Amino acid sequence: MGRWRDGHGELVVGEVRVPLEIATSYRARTKGLLGRDAVEGALLLSPAGSVHTFRMRFPIDVAYLDRRLRVIAVHTMKPGRLGLPRLRARHVVEAGAGVMEGWGMRVGVEVGVVVR
Questions:
Q1: pLDDT tens-digit profile of 17-40?
Q2: Which of 41, 43, 110 is nearest to 71 (CA)?
Q3: Beta pairing, strands 60-65 & 16-23
Q4: How many other C-beta atoms lie within 10 A of the C-beta of residue 12?
Q5: Beta pairing partners, 13
């Protein structure tokens, strides 16, 4: 897995490949999806164990990943919410509400990250 840097890549969920933004710096993680009207693909926050949707403009799907990139929880969050911290979570993937189900992102699935 290695360490990532801010940038772009692909999220691999089974046979599905999704455009991915990678946010690893404090500044990039803090900004996240704030100020946007949508997200194309997904955003990976690392390290991260919880998220919030304060000042966000749209609902999102949130997947919490452990250190092996296995999904430990998936939730849809409306704007203005605070997600509960997940003790085993090391990374968080955010995407537009409702899309993760179509990708097959559910508890127990192991995902991959391909960096460009």
A1: 999 999 999 999 999 998 899 999
A2: 110
A3: unpaired
A4: 17
A5: 16
Residue 107 class from Cβ within 10 Å (0-12 exposed, 13-18 middle, 19+ buried)? exposed
DSSP of 22-61, one letter per residue?
EE-SHHHHHHTTTT-S--SSEEEESS-S--B-TT-SS-EE
For residue range 59-96, list pLDDT tens digits in order.
999 999 999 999 999 999 999 999 999 999 999 999 99
Token representation of residue 32:
């996240």
pTM exceeds 0.85: yes
Omega of the bond leading into 47 within 30 degrees of 0 (cis): yes
CB 90, CB 63: distance < 8 Å:
no
